[in-house]
Amino acid sequence: MAKILVVDDDLEFQDLAKFTFGSAGYEVYQVYDGREALNKIKQVVPDIIILDVMMPEMNGFEVVTEIRNDPETCLIPVIMLTSLSQPKDKLTGLKLGADEYLVKPIEPYEIVAWVENLLKKYYDNVNLLTKLPGENIFEKQIINLINSSKDFNIIYFDILNFKPYNLKYGFQNGDNLLKLFSGIIRSTVTNLGTKKDSFYHIHASRFTVISYIDEDIGIIIENVMILFKNLINKIFDKETIDRGYFTYLLPDGSEEKSSLINLAVAVAKVPKGKFNHHGELLTYLNELLNLAKEKCKETTNNVVVWG
What we know:
Blueprint: E1 3-7, H1 11-23, E2 27-31, H2 34-44, E3 48-51, H3 60-69, E4 78-82, H4 87-96, E5 100-103, H5 108-125, H6 135-148, E6 152-160, H7 162-169, H8 171-192, E7 198-203, E8 206-211, H9 218-235, H10 238-243, E9 245-249, E10 255-259, E11 262-270, H11 278-299, E12 303-306
Parallel strand pairs: 1-2, 1-3, 3-4, 4-5, 11-12
Antiparallel strand pairs: 6-8, 6-11, 7-8, 9-10
Helix pairs in contact: 2-3, 7-8, 8-9
């Protein structure tokens, strides 16, 4: 059941929204001012937000700005629904990051249709666990970059021994590990990258960053490595860390030994004109990542391979 947060100080509209979205099968959350909305978003992590503009405490423009600037909420779809109908107001909302800008009054079934279409677009393009953009968007971005002849950097991160970790500690803990690592990626790129940098969850335990940092891309990698080490210290007990491995059971009941989870990193600086097709670049990146993974297995350490 998708979670929808309705942010509006109009009590009559809130009653209508609760009935309309509840009848359509949504889990409805309601708040009545902008500042309360930011707290509720952190608590429930809604799948989509319906946001009024004119509200006490914080207006909708301020709220959507906060949502888009926070790496934990920046990808949540937002529909601004307001009585402000001037073109400049609509342009302001869209520029600040609203996905749609609708003007009241509007029929309830129309709102549901807008929500359904936006959620379909959203879920078709993001990883459902981490809410990061997925492989399709990543490949489209690579194609656009190659065709535009821009210089850029790509970083592949792959968490090794993730499958044994799932078998040992359970899939829920595995999901939590991916969520925590996605938070590391989000916060690092948001704080240390450029405003145009982007991040993706493209496969199981593999994450990708596209960055336009001109000089030392290593600052992103170094910070991720530090936070990843801290994460390891939290998810394994001291005895397991000191031992350097854990045992787990295979489906047939036999016992296997696994090193602790490690991070294999492949980095490619991509100058304009180096690749003519996105497939060439992706093949090159996979080769770099495979080399990093081999070195990880040999050394049982985190490894970065530069290309």
